[in-house]
Please model this.
Amino acid sequence: MSALVKLVDVGKRYGEHVALQPTSLSVARGKTTVLIGPSGCGKSTLLRLIIGLVEPDSGSIEFDGAPIGPDNIDNVRRRTGYVIQEGGLFPHLTARNNATLMARYLGRKNEETKQRLSELCQLTRLSESLVDRYPLELSGGQRQRVSLMRALMLSPELLLLDEPLGALDPLVRASLQKDLKEIFAGLKQTALLVTHDLAEAAYLGDEIVLMNEGRIVQQGSIADLREGPADPFVSEFINAQRGIASL
Amino acid sequence: MNRIRKAGKEETIESRNQESRNRHFKSRFFLITWFPDFLLIFSCVPVFLIDSSSAANVVIGSKKFTESYVLGEIAKRALNDVGMPAEHRQGMGGTIILWEALRGGQIDAYPEYTGTIAQEILKSDRALSVDEIRASLAKLGAGITNPLGFNNTYALVMRRSEAQRLGIRKISDLQKYPELKIGLTHEFLDRQDGWRPLRERYALPQKNVIGIDHTLGYSALASGSIDVKDAYSTDAKIEQNDLVVLEDDLHFFPKYKAVFLFRLSMRPEAIAALRRLEGTLNERRMIRLNAEAERTKNYTRAADLYFGRRAGSAKPTDESFPHELARWTLRHLQLAGFALLLSVLVGIPLGIVASRGGAVGHTIIGFAGVVQTIPSLALLALLVPLPFFGISVRTAIAALFLYGLLPIVRNTATGLQDIPRALRESAVALGLSPIARLWEIHLPMASRSILSGIKTSAVINIGTATLAALIGAGGLGEPILSGLNLNDHVTILEGAIPAAVLALLVQWFFDLLDRVLIPKGLRL
Model:
């Protein structure tokens, strides 16, 4: 099966600082690809390049076989869901209006949208009684569930998640990780997730992409990374994040 | 906007046409509707921008002091008596404002003094005869009547008791008393024939010289805060306050014979009517009329006296206080409300542009800031000579509009800049168009800041609008101004108290508006 998103030699710098060295990456359809690495390694930049929040200095990005440019970026954005840390929910809109914002903007039928919203409530395990609350009236975990509903509203082909669970306490985080895994599997969702937590990456990712200093160091399953580290950084990164269980 | 179209009433077919989708989106969204609501609220304040003068009316102006008011009223009556509709715009300001208004056609005639015409209008450095003045004015499209009879020259006055104690009779006697405190009107301080040459001529040694409003100066003189002040020789206050006029023994002050200055293009019948007033008023009679006006606080009564009518026989301008107050307040609200509406319509877009920063943004904020630093009186004076403005409601609204701009521009800009980057990016990543992002996300999120800017503007406007009376635009400044001219505290309070109450009400109204217009999610 061909890749949904394909980056070829994509590079980005901010002044003197190189955020991403020319990098190539394919995001396979129906799989969860996880970008992992230390802070500032370029993993978020890579995500922001795909959704068009930053423009690449070099290289090209293809979405479903077509190169992304100013002409089709809005189309790409509507076929993509985007979830960030802390949700990025608009505080002046209720959970319902946040989730259905784009559907209404695109003139989708009210009934369909309503139907879709209650499906998503079940999928993300958010009580339907909460949808008329404002973001400030929801807990951190509930906000992330609403944010996920908003991202999934238009049944996007691609889901981008930028440290979606980064600000949550461990228990909520664990329950959301489990739910995310089920959701991705149930929807056969193509997802690209950024995290700095190796356990999360191992748990959610079909494919793990380890990055450091603006480039991809190694790519493969967690077993590949553990057993055949491409360079000393890989071992170092894995060892640094060894869980309490192995102590 | 399509407010009537209710959400859910029509279901659009999945259309590929993005434009129609966008329109539909807008009509449905409640947030897009808050702005029109806002405009609606303000259009409830009826605005009559049309100048009250019509082509048929002869418009008489007057300067900001009792005698000018009285003469203006007399001229109006003289015209009415020959069947010509006339309007008297009272207390429009000083010489330059009246002269510009005359040249600009906003007024047709006003009472003036020969000395002032020679010095201030014709910029002559010597005294001119009436004929010389008439010839020079003709080139400027203006004419004068012959003198009305009295000479209202400048004079220096003192308390009688003080003058007798020190033995001062003449201005030259002042040389011996350098410790005397002198309070002068701002106009006298600045005039070419005013304080500076007077001091030189008489070699006056006094160092303690302050500028003070003419009417307030009489109070200061009575209380002993000052010892000497300038006055007009027909001032009713001279007798009332038991003052003495110091003899101009070196003949410094030129003649200030009262005349009517008029546009040569004024109708000949109107000119003829004004000329019938020539030579009918000597000093004593004028002092009496001035005293009558100040005693009764009613210029119409003084005019009655001139025409030999018994007071109270014809009182066309007498209206009940509640009615008067309602008229002032309504006009005040019109001025402030319409100016605020303009500030909002211009300020919010400018604030949106300014929020993007860069050279343009800084220029906008800078410009609005500079306007704010111009004293409001100076701003009015700067606008008056401009062709479109002149002495009119337009000028008052323009000045108020400029003052109201900065708080709105700045609050819109900061409100937008304060939106977290993550939320801006979320809106972009969703695929909303720039317009939709602005309407649906940015403006609602900045609404608290924008509204507080509008509130600030509104309160500033209510306060500053009292100055509109200076250029005859009316409002609650009218009683404040005439009270100031008549040294009548009750009249001042008749304008000042309602203006303060109005400012509080406006504040309260906007606090209420906050609850309606700021989305609930931002008020948690």
Notes: Chain B has 23 helices and ten strands. Residues 1-55, 310-317 of chain B have pLDDT under 50 and may be disordered.
